[in-house]
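DATA SHEET
Item: assembly model
Revision: 1
Owner: S.N.
Input lines:
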Amino acid sequence: MWKTLRQIQKVGLVTEAPPSADETLRVREALQQQILAVLGRALCIRQVDAGSCNGCELEIHALNNPIYNLEGLGIKFVASPRHADMLLVTGPVTRNMELALLRTYEATPDPKLVVAVGDCGCTGGIFGESYATRGRVSNVIPVDVTVPGCPPDPVKIMQGILTAITAREKAR
Amino acid sequence: MMRARWWFDRGLPIAGIAGAARLPVSSEEWRQAAEDFNATGVRLLALWATRNEHDRNLVRAAYTMEDRLLVLDLELAGWHYPAIDHLFPAALRMQRAAADLSGVRAMPIDQRPWLRHAGWPEDFYPLANRENPALTEPVDEHYPFVRVQGDGVHEIAVGPVHAGIIEPGHFRFSVVGEKVLKLEERLGYVHKGIERRFSELPLLEAHRLAARVSGDSAVAFSWAYCQALEGIAAAPAPPRAAYLRAIALECERIANHLGDLGALGNDAGFAFGLAQFSRLKEILLRSLQTTFGQRYLMDFIVPGGVRNDVGASTLDALIETLRTIEGETRKLRTIYDEHSGVRDRFAGTGTVAPQLAAKLGLTGLAGRASGQNYDLRVDMPCLPYTEVAPRKVCLEDGDVAARVAVRFDELAESIMLTRKLAKRLPDGAIRTDVPIPAEGRFGVGAIEGWRGPVFVALESGPEGWVRRCHPHDPSWQNWPVLEHAIIGNIVPDFPLINKSFNLSYSGHDL
């Protein structure tokens, strides 16, 4: 036990300052004001892999490491869409996941936000549209913010999430 | 062994890997070879379907024996061929996938679809029909799961959308109380048509798609692809590039093992482990960004070599980072080992005994935790593993604790290996020009990724296009074994057992 405690004490706090919002990532502006009024910055996210190669999932995982410490900002990942305010979706959306994604979206209570993560989620990426995929996430459900990258690094993903829950300057 | 060798000796060499060969066989020989291989411990690496130059269906099976690889070619007059899953259980899903994608059916076989759900019509075979079917409204699939009946038996259905940040798949548990009687997997949710997409890309660009078959194995897949391509084009990568590729591959292994060790601690209720290991993984990823220009090396390996060179001082910094990780990991291993709660959850959980592992064809990291002593880096080495060989890690216990121990040992070994590779890194070019290969060539690549052997079979088409490319992830072999590993365990141990295998959905669903 003392080894565990000594390790915790030795490593100390490693969390870095979060990035600020990036307006260029916003593609739709529907509900921000409403959500901000209800939630402030406390946010629950349901992540949905709708067909990714799992690269994006690795970087989304990193958001919870002590260095990015997303939970420290009051933002956490939840197990059910019914508990979620935001869907963080990676793509391309496969035909075999289309229905599951639609149902997850419908199960998420309004007002809700959708952030598409990764080149495939934003554009269909290298997989494109085919007999097996519907391509970009916005082909299947409405998307508020897109975070390109293959995979995007955790700072970029965090920026996307923060953009979605930050009101536009001029809207204030 | 004699009988198996007889088949291997008759093969004609194929490009890509020294010791790889192919052998055209009749239907009867296809079956006989499988029987001989099964009797002598030869491993099934992959099974897939393609079409030959006469536009006839061709079923291929790749087997490995010691340092040799043999691809059996079975040309079909029609659409049927003899099944081999009674000898190699891992072949079952590969046969079902070939039926879904190419329309060729193994007889007799489980006739349920595997990669096809309800998204496209039953008579559309993506690798045989070029015309795409019309887009239809998404509908539910009615998949006939095998039911367990009896007093007190009930089912738990999980997925495709899971509770964490994980890839999608469906698990159907039949349980009594907390005890699992049976698990049946339903995969294919992330089928993105990768094999079809390959044949829409130029040979010199398709390595990018290979790297995205399974994001956590980007280096292994892009290397295996380039190995096959460079074999076809007779343009081997220069030695410096081979060494840099190996350093990248070992870093990919280290990064994944760090992530898994943390997640396994977490699944055993020890959140400290996740915090510590995910921090170490982040430190490594940042170092990879400086060294190779990317945190995940999706685009580092290119046909003919690597994208960018690594300077001596940058490499020294990477080695220094690895030294820190080595020391920290050693400390954390002691903490894991001494933690009675963690030991209790790990030991004796999700056991796959060596005998069962051999029978089911368990491979890679999970295989080595169950006595399956096979590692392509040692058993079928390519440059630079011919010059700098790792020590093989193999344990017999086959439980979660063994899969954790293999990760700890391999992580330490990979750090040592990276140091040796960096020390002996030859000077010279990092890339050679790869000429556009002629049409109708066939090459293979095989690389030991962090999860296990990654295999790529590549055929060149006209004017520098890919004719057919089949990427194979070791998850194909290991997913069915997970169904056995859980039997008799309790439901709450499933996440832990599942994580200890950490199989790829994307690499399997293609």
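QC remark: The longest helix of chain A spans residues 95-107.
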